[in-house]
Every structure is written in C-alpha cells, then in structure tokens.
Amino acid sequence: MTDTAPRPTLEAVAARAGVSRATASRVVNGGDGVREPLVARVRRAVEELGYVPNQAARSLVTRRHDAVAVVIAEPETRVFADPFFALQLRGISKELTAHDNQLVLLLTEGRDDHARVGRYLAGGHVDGALVFSLHLDDPLPGLIQRAGVPTVFGGRPGWSEDSGGAVYVDSDNRGGAREAVQHLVGLGRTRVAHITGPLDQTSAADRLEGYRDVMGDADPGLVVESDFTPAGGERAMRELLERHPSPDAVFAANDLTASGALRVLRERGRRVPEDVALIGFDDMLPVAEQTDPPLTTVRQDIEEMGRLMARLLLRGGAEQGVEGAPSSVVLPTTLVRRASA
Amino acid sequence: MTDTAPRPTLEAVAARAGVSRATASRVVNGGDGVREPLVARVRRAVEELGYVPNQAARSLVTRRHDAVAVVIAEPETRVFADPFFALQLRGISKELTAHDNQLVLLLTEGRDDHARVGRYLAGGHVDGALVFSLHLDDPLPGLIQRAGVPTVFGGRPGWSEDSGGAVYVDSDNRGGAREAVQHLVGLGRTRVAHITGPLDQTSAADRLEGYRDVMGDADPGLVVESDFTPAGGERAMRELLERHPSPDAVFAANDLTASGALRVLRERGRRVPEDVALIGFDDMLPVAEQTDPPLTTVRQDIEEMGRLMARLLLRGGAEQGVEGAPSSVVLPTTLVRRASA
DNA sequence: ACAGGTCGTGAGAGCGCTCTCGACTCAGGG
DNA sequence: CCCTGAGTCGAGAGCGCTCTCACGACCTGT
Fold first, then answer.
1. B75-101 pLDDT, tens per residue?
2. Using CB atoms within 10 A as the burial measure, which of A209, B7, B118, B132 is most buried?
3. Any CB–CB contact under 8 A between A119 and chain B?
4. What is the fold of B173-300?
5. Nearest by CB to B63, which of A2, A109, A231?
6. A Pfam family this protein belongs to (chains A, B) (predicted)?
7. Is B9 near chain A, with CB under 8 Å?
8. Chain B within 8 Å of A18 (Cβ-Cβ)?
9. What confidence score (pLDDT) does residue B230 get?
C-alpha cells in the first residue's frame, strides 16, 4: 500500500547544513542553545529537503506521542444526531492542533470494545484520554482510570462522587436549570413543568435537581421523563397537556426536546409564551433561533468545554496526580432570553 | 497514580520464556516457523508480564503505522448537525477496528489548516487517508493527492472527472433521485418540484441531475435551491407554494429538507400525500419514520459507505471482485415507500 | 598570564523492535 | 558414509531520533 519515496532523515538535513545530527535536532526542536548562523542553515536545509520528523523514532526515545485518545462510549445511534459531540470534538480538535497533538478517535459499541479500548490505552500509545461516557452504569470510565492513563472526562461521571480524583469538565447544569426555572417563576408562572432528559445521564439528572431546587417535589405530576429528542419532547408534552391542571410553563431539558414540545403546543392551539412559557437548554443555534417563537434557553458553550478538556489534559501532562494536577472545571451557563419565555 | 511502571519489553518476555528476542518477536507476530513448545512458553510470558508491543518501535522499522487519517473539511458548523458524518465515521471506525487500525481524526477549518493537514499526511504518519470534502472548490483533495498518500474519498470529489485515479465511495445519488421522481410521475403527478441541496456539493448536484433525467428542464420554476436543513426546507417550500401553479409533488434533496417542507405543507392545510406527494432522501430513521405522515424516501446505507471506504483503503482496492488497482464504488439506493408518496 | 567558568557543538549510546543471515539440527538420498 | 535441503533458532545490525556527556572555544577575574 505504501510506495512513498524515501523520506529525508535528520542525518540528511545535518549533512546538507554542514552540522552534526545533534545540532540539527536542536534546531528542529526549537533551536535553543544554537547560534544564529547555524539555526538559519539548518532551517534552510529542512525547507529544501522538505524534512518532516519521523514521529515513531521520536516517540521511541521521548516516550511521548503527542497524541490524545478521544473515547466516545456510544451504544445508541440516536445520540449521534445530537450535534453535542460534534461540537465538543471540534473544540478538542482545535486545542490539540494548537499544541501539535493528534486526535485518535475511539468509538465503542458494547462490552467487547471496552476491553479493546482498555488494552489500547494501557498500551501507552497515547499521552492521555478524553472520555465521554453518558450512562451511570458504564464500566468504561473505571476501566480507563485503572489503565493509568491521564484522563479528563466530558461531563461529570456518575460514579465519581466517592472515587475522587476524576477530572472532568462540565457545564453548571444544576445552576442553569435553577436560573431557567426561577425566570419562569419570576414571570408569575405557578405550574412549571419539566421535561427531563434520560435520567441515567448526569446532565439530565443535574438539570432535574436544579428544577427541584426551585420547585421542590411539590407536584411530581409536572415532571415527565424524556430522552433529549424532538419526538420524545412531543410525546412528553402531549402527556403533560392531558394532566389537570395543565402547566403554564415548561422547562425542557434541552432545545431539541423544547422544539418537539413547542410543535405540540402550537398544534393544540396554546400560545407561546402567553399560555405556556417555554425554556430549553443548550442554545443550539440552528434549533433555538429558528423555532417560532425563538426559544429562550440556557446557553452552554459546548465547543469551549471540548477545548478546556484538551487544555486540562495537556497541562496535566505526563505526571498525573502530582501537585500540578488539574482539577475539574464546571463552566457557568447563561440564560438567553428570546421570545418563548 | 504515581510513576507508571516501566512497561515490559520484548527482551523481558524473551528472557522469561528462555528464548531469544527474535523468537519472541516471531511469536508475537503470529508465531510462524516456531515450534509449539516455544510458542506456548512465549505466549505465557506475554500474558504474565502483560506485554504490549511498542507501536513506535515497531513502526520505526516496518514503516507501517496501522493508522488511518480521517479528514473532514468542514468550514461550516451546520453540517455537524447532520448525522451523516457521524454515521460514516461509525462505519469507518468499525472496519478499522476489525483490522487493528487506529483512526486519526483531522478536522479542518479554513485554508491554514489545509497546509497543516497536507504536511501531516505527507509526513507519513499514517498509512492512508479517508477524505470528506463537500465543496467543489475545495483545494484540499488535490493537496492530499499530491501528498502521495493512499486516499479514498467519501462522495464523488467534484474535480475528479479529469484528474482520474481518485478512488471514492458514493451512493448512486442520480439513480436514486431518478427513481424517486419516476415514482412520483408514476403516481400521476405532473407538477413535480425539487428542493435541492447546496449545489456546490456533488451529492446535491447529482440528485438534481437525476430529477432532470426524468423531468427535463421544462419548468425551472419547480426547482428551488436549498441547503439540506429543515429550516431551509421550510423556506423553499413556502417559495414553491407561492408559485402558480403550485406543485402536486415534491422531491426534497434529503429527509431534513423534506421534514421542513412537510411542516409548511401541513401549516398551509395541504394534505400529504393527497394534495402534494413528498419524497425525501437518506432514510435517516429518527427523521423519516417519525414525521406525520411517515416519509417515503430514498435509502442509502451511510454506515456501509464508511465501512467500504475503510475496506477499500486497507485492501488497496481488492474488493468485491475488483482486480488489481483500487477503483471507486457507487452503492445502490433503494426507494422506501411509506405514507408520504 | 592562567585557573575557572560558560557556551556551543559533536560523538555516541541507546529507545524497542523487525528482519536478515548464518549456525545448527535432523531427514533422506546418493 | 557424506551431502543437501528444509526447518528452527539466535546474533546482531539497524530504523531515525533524542539526550547525555565530553571537548574545545571563548570569556571572565585575579
């Protein structure tokens, strides 16, 4: 498959520049402690030969790979339709690129893959891992931590309360939810419903907590579990409208859910926000801005989360658990007021 | 989580098994030409020590990396909302995993990144590349081909007509579109409209060609350019309904567009399919099945496309009875009849 | 002037692995 | 009986790079 022309080596560069391999190496790696005329000569030689360092040889001696694994534990196709991962990936990619790191993508599907991923990570092929695991009962995070690879989680891992030391980046789901519900209450709404996400995901659970912080568990009939999808939102909204009294406000666990709920509300002739005020979560632009009316929602900067995960991992470097060790970050959310509430 | 224990080397395995490093290597790589008792001894040593080959050292001598780059040229955030890439990625990932290859993800954003990607690929860090480039004027594909890396494109590259030798995997967009439109005509519809995708993408352009194969360019007023999004579909549908006479059938360039169009049709009180028959493209399940009425659409197996791309790259083209040189594959589509047409 | 330091450079030792090549063994044929 | 050849195995030479270390050149201060 490979019939590439022989690539120039450092040796060749050194020869052309009339210096030793050691000096050429120094220049390629920043050029500290090399006098200017030589630096220039080597740089030119690199340019002329089109030299690119052989990463394998470099890794062999440095024991660094300048590569980070991104693990997405994703048994369900559905979630792919959510731009959430894509945006985080983009943030991660940008940050890694800025630090000349490569992104090795590991998608898992079922338990067999877990072993494979564990083996890969333990094999020391990458300098660290960024892990997305949605579900509370996922064994993958534990497996990975045991592999002894520096790791940053995307979203608070469900089990992390006691097995401290897990570094993660998350949005302030609870605080954001609280703010949304408080806003609805401030509007004078009294029957504020909540359409949740899948409650085995911490983000959904945390948003429910935020809702309860304000509403208490007063009327459990106002809470309907759903699944973060538009169709699920429709279903949940129908269910809510059948209850008595039906809500005068709805806090949906994400924008997709809110868009589904909105569709049902209009179909049933309820005016938004006059009859029912509606708030979403995420501020996913193509969704939130183009609904009618545009969605009031809780914004979280998803791409920034990704960027931060990468930054945390890279900064933590090879020495995890040492004093400079990174600690988790919870990003603030902001309420974006549009027309729906 | 202190210092990572030094990983065992082949040398250590050999010592424990009482053989030479060469023999240990042979066993690790399949064990051909080594007598059974030794094979077993080495295998046990590997097990006991938890030995994992050092990929860097291996690559250094073999010049293979067992890694494939996936390049997604993506200037626009929008497209991420499309599960299209995600599904292809999943297919690719599965196939690569099955062959013990790693997936290195390269996302590009703007021209600066092109140079970076070119350099990376030319640097010989991966055995091949799978490239997604949507737009006709994208310089990336050319750049990559010049890098001399085995490459398979996802979707027909726009420029490939003359610069032959580009290997790609695509759906039969034109044929699928033709079948859809023929179906509409077969239903007795005479004013069949087409809401296109962005016409600088070959998939959208090919679907338009398929439409024209059946309808000719008779009434250019029946063709509206759009952008593969639900909101775009709404806009285009509104535009179509204002025309005289308004269409009695619509072929939308993808399901997302169709769902937007459907929303407008219902809003305006047009019955589907009685007044206006509607067909989409993709058979994206969460969308196509859950619309009301469920969408008749042209199915393409997106995940299979990804899998095939990877297979083509890894096997150098010796796929599906194709002899010798790798050649492109165009996958057939199938019309899925549901209620909308 | 010389001892002691700093700085810039090159020589060379590996990093862990694969792979060639030669040594050795054991059949079987001449 | 030796010779040939196939089958096993080990010794050792790198793959391309980084990094330590030694060495010479050049400063300082006395």
1. 655 555 567 888 899 999 999 999 999
2. B132
3. yes
4. Rossmann fold (3.40.50)
5. A2
6. LacI
7. no
8. no
9. 86
Predicted confidence (pLDDT) at residue A322 exceeds the cutoff of 80: no
Q: What is the three-class DSSP state of A158?
A: coil
Distance from CA(B54) to C1'(C17), angstroms, rounded? 8
DSSP string, A238-276: HHHHTSSSPPSEEEESSHHHHHHHHHHHHHTT--TTTTS
**Residue A5 touches partner B, C-beta closer than 8 Å:** yes
Cα–Cα distance for residue pair B247/B257, rounded to 1 Å: 16
Residues facing residue A252 across a β-bridge: A195
Nearest-CB residue to B127 (from A1, A89, A105): A1
The CATH number for B10-62, chosen from 3.40.50.261, 1.10.260.40, 1.20.810.10, 3.40.50.300, is 1.10.260.40
Q: How far is the CA of A98 from the C1' of C15 (A)?
A: 27
Instruction: Report whether CATH 3.30.230.10 matches the domain A67-170+303-332.
Output: no
Domain boundaries, chain A: 10-62, 67-170+303-332, 173-300
Residues 297-326 of B with CB under 8 A from A: 314, 316
Contacts of B105 in chain A (CB under 8 A): 70, 89, 93, 103-105
Q: Locate the chain A residue with the closest alpha carbon to B86.
A: A80
pLDDT digits (tens, 9 = 90+) for A120-159: 898 889 999 999 877 777 888 888 877 888 999 999 887 6
pTM: predicted TM-score of the whole model, two decimal places:
0.90
- Identical fold for domains A10-62 and A67-170+303-332, yes or no, is no
